[in-house]
Design a protein that fits this description.
CATH class: Mainly Beta
Strand order of the largest sheet: 1-30-29-28-27
Oligomer: single chain
Number of domains: 1
Helix content: under 10%
CATH topology: Methylamine Dehydrogenase, Chain H
Structural class: mainly beta
CATH architecture: 7 Propeller
Distance between the termini: 23 Å
Length: 532
């Protein structure tokens, strides 16, 4: 419960904001358009969001689960909203029960239960941890654990954007109809769960890569959609792109059949196509993640086998390395490409899989093999398999790499599960949640800062890092699987984590009945004192 002094402080803030609203409201055009900066509604929305942020409680505890546990459930994205609530997307293979119902507010689950995955979106109240609304976007184009497959963003007025890929019959009311069996889908939701608009975006079969997509919303409420295109034949550039858009200002290279390049399309805030182009290169590269900064730039993350056009420096041409791309949201220019990885061609692993934006830069994570840069904690070599380490990086707001670190074991490979990463500005700390190796071994070289009594395979690991320089400050091991003969049990994997209030974390977690893949997902929070 809130203390008397905190309640009084919040009341003073609210009264002050209401006075501001009354004073300045007469200077605003009285238009009911919360996305228009000249609108009174826009100003009132900003004031209410400011107030709601001021009442955050560091000691709140709560959780909500979806899924019966009998079928495959794959959480995708978790987005904290400015008003303190959370929006979640996932792939489900059954109707989800919420608030006593199993239907969606606009559309419901269709298909064969246990067989046909569907994309679901729902909103969780940030104070009661109850589901306020839930909707189905349609049958999923693929079954994937990629957290960007159903990516989320927030518009200036608190409305919600989502971008994904679907199959099946189109839902009624779209701006553009669904032309092909597999299509991209973009939608804008109100805070109450109604669809402001939604649209299908099409490319011919075989011209794009299922699963490799991402999106952001910029400060002018434009949706920037990123996808991985696929070349259909040798020396055949893609000059069409998404069929609903004007022709690309820059076509793909299309140098060889199957070549992967990145498409970039922009919708305005009303869902109308504006422009599109390709980021092209001499070899394969694909998008995995994206983040938007307040200065109007976008940072993309992914993997590349060769140079991206006009930007040399790939350390090992023909071998997979991570990369970041700094883009301008207003002109669709590529400002900078940074390749991440070793020049040692013994290694063929590298990708930047997740990016979080902070006030002073971008933080990212993924996997890499072979040392590069000037890490405090260097690459840990294991002589079998694909030599994988987790990789952590920080860029400034101009896309310049500031530091990189590795986390691995000289006794085992790390598993191919993206670490969940959050930045806590109050402590200038990076918090990372991940799963340990299948062998149950600890990470190498961190004994002096290790704690916890975790045992068995797939331990639950919490890593804390200094955000300024990337130095590891502590690593804690907790048991995830209690039965080892045979290896089985309920395993929890953090997919997304966010700082909710000065170190109180909100987590989107997948639980599975290992070694089976069926399970459920959970959105939860607890006091910082309970965090490892």
């Amino acid at each position: 419960m809130f203390s008397y002094s905190r309640t009084r402080k919040n009341l003073i803030i609210l009264i002050y904001l209401l006075c501001l609203s009354f004073s300045f409201g007469h200077c605003k055009l009285d238009l009911n358009n919360p996305s228009d900066p000249k609108s009174k509604s826009y100003f009132e929305t900003a004031l209410m969001n400011l107030y709601l942020r001021s009442v955050c409680s560091a000691h709140l505890r709560g959780n909500v689960r979806i899924g019966s546990g009998n079928y495959l459930v794959l959480p995708h994205s978790l987005l904290p909203l400015k008003n303190g609530n959370y929006v979640v997307t996932a792939s489900v293979s059954e109707p989800v029960t919420w608030s006593g119902r199993s239907s969606g507010v606009n559309y419901s689950y269709t298909g064969l239960i246990g067989t046909d995955p569907a994309i679901v979106i729902f909103q969780v109240n940030g104070r009661t941890f109850e589901i306020e609304w839930l909707d189905y976007l349609g049958p999923a184009a693929t079954t994937t654990a990629n957290s960007h497959f159903s990516s989320l963003s927030e518009f200036s007025n608190g409305e919600i954007g989502v971008f994904t890929q679907v199959i099946g019959t189109e839902q009624l009311g779209a701006i553009s109809p669904k032309l092909f069996s597999q299509a991209f889908m973009a939608a804008r939701y109100s805070p109450s769960g109604s669809r402001v608009w939604f649209t299908y975006l099409d490319m011919a079969a075989g011209t794009f890569n299922i699963d490799k997509i991402a999106h952001v919303v910029d400060s002018t409420d434009q949706m920037h959609l990123f996808y991985t295109s696929t070349g259909t034949a040798a020396n055949t550039p893609n000059t069409v792109g998404l069929t609903e858009f004007p022709a690309p200002t820059i076509a793909s290279n299309g140098l060889f059949a199957g070549q992967k390049e990145i498409g970039w399309a922009v919708l305005n805030g009303n869902g109308m196509p504006q422009r599109q182009r390709f980021l092209r290169g001499a070899g394969d590269f694909e998008v995995i993640s994206a983040a938007y900064s307040k200065d109007g730039n976008i940072l993309l993350g992914g993997s590349a086998l060769n140079f991206i056009e006009n930007f040399s420096g790939h350390p090992a041409v023909g071998f997979t390395r991570g990369f970041s791309a700094q883009l301008t949201s207003n002109t669709q220019e590529v400002l900078k490409i940074t390749y991440l990885g070793s020049n040692n061609t013994s290694f063929n692993v590298g990708k930047l899989e997740a990016i979080k934006v902070a006030n002073d830069g971008f933080y990212g994570t993924g996997v890499a093999a072979g040392s590069y840069g000037s890490p405090i904690h260097d690459y840990q070599y294991y002589s079998a398999g694909n030599f994988r380490n987790y990789s952590f990086v920080k860029f400034d707001l101009n896309g310049n790499l500031l530091w990189n670190q590795f986390l691995g074991s000289s006794n085992a490979n790390v598993i191919d599960q993206v670490p969940a990463l959050a930045y806590i500005s109050y402590f200038d700390e990076i918090r990372v949640k991940l799963i340990g190796p299948e062998s149950g071994t600890k990470m190498t070289g961190l004994d002096s800062i290790s704690n916890g009594s975790g045992i068995n395979p797939y331990q639950d690991i919490t890593l804390r890092m200094d955000g300024r320089v990337g130095r590891y400050s502590s690593i804690r091991y907790e048991t995830n699987i209690f039965v080892t003969t045979p290896v089985s049990g309920l395993v929890g994997m953090d997919v997304n984590i966010h700082d909710a209030c000065n170190g109180r974390m909100v987590s989107l977690k997948r639980f599975l009945y290992f070694p089976n893949t069926n399970g459920f997902l959970e959105v939860s929070t607890k006091s910082p004192m309970e965090e490892p």
